[in-house]
Amino acid sequence: MGKRTPIRLFATLFLCYCYIDQRPGWNQNTRFDLLHALFTKGTVAIDGYDANTLDKARIGDHYFCDKAPGGVVIALPAFALAAGILKVARVDLDSPSGWKTSQWITTSGSVGLLTAIAGVSFFSFLAARMTRPAAALATLGVFLGAMPLPYATMLFAHGAVMSLLFIALWSFDRAERGARPGHDYLIGFCCGLAAASEYPAALAAGAVFVAMLTLGWRHAVRFAAAAFPPALLVPAYNWLVSGSPFTIPYSLAFAFPAMKEGLWGFTYPKLSVAFQLLFSEYRGLFLWSPVLLFCVLGFRSLRRESPRLFWLSTVVPTVMVAYVSGYNSWDGGWALGPRLISAAVPFLAIAAGLGLAARPKAATGLGVVSVMLLSLATLLGAMPPQGEPRVLTMFYPQRFLAGDMAMNLGQLAGLRGGWSMVPLFVLLGAGAWVLSSADDTTETGPPAVSASRAGTA
Fold it and tell me: Among 47, 36, 28, 59, which Cα is nearest to 241's?
């Protein structure tokens, strides 16, 4: 059964991500506007679609998506599939039903699919160090009890960025252990595409490049060669929109003049904001992703096993928090958790995964709490209003009592209110049970770390 664990893990994660279709929002709407414009009009201008978003740039008499282009490129294949299905069904792509159907298929087939693949790569990283059941349950804890879950259900760029960086870190681990050069190329491609999807992810990509340099110049050259093509998406899109490869549409954002202060809205780090990003009810990373607190226990094991990964897992989150704490709109608008520091999550997670194995009983308890918390929040809607400080203690309880939740497969099956949540939790329970009974072995890799000793000296 052990050899089937990655397939079953992938299926569990992917079905969970497909189960929910979030409400529309400016951030994802502007990307869907661009996709519709490309397919129906053959242009990058979103004129005629832009009324559903203020995340747009006006240049001359035209409106454009102001987001980094990588997220739309990642979504293109799934959107093409959705458009093809709708054409066969004779449903207009721009009709309300066409729009909703294409949104669900595109989100599930792009960021949802990529996040499930990233979950398998994270499992592989952990399974080389602990038993398969421990690795599988830790993966469920991170990918269903932390930020990957809500952002795998909507076409923000953050789900794709986290997934690409998870895959890059798994591949870095393989490269560090002397795997084939192909891993260097995969690391570079993932980091380049992550930076092209969300500009601040370039900080994380740059740190990974420095780590590649410490492996040797050949590793770094292969990384750069693979990172260059996806990184070119940024100047190419800039040129299509503004006529200059150096004019970023984000700097011309239509409704956010604060972005023109400092460097696209970034000024200097603020300690009070850093605290809000990490611990507050409003946006705190460790409140909304409590399973990541186990990184504290995992750092010691990671430092002993791989100083490079330890360096990445501590420096990148620190830099990301410092950077975003200086942003004028640090809370990220209508969003769940601190989405602007999402690039830090994979780096904390590799330590958290080892920490979860170090304290299996505590990990089980907090893991269940994390999965229930994030699952409920995602089902009720992963975009609580900006400026609502009591998200956990007021907003979500009120929405739950009102039976107001995001569209999901349970509702399509005729279930109403809280009953529509039941199939998802049955799926979660069944997936956890099956994966916990997997073959109790480790994958080929460095000396295995047992679930009871991981993270200890």
Answer: 59
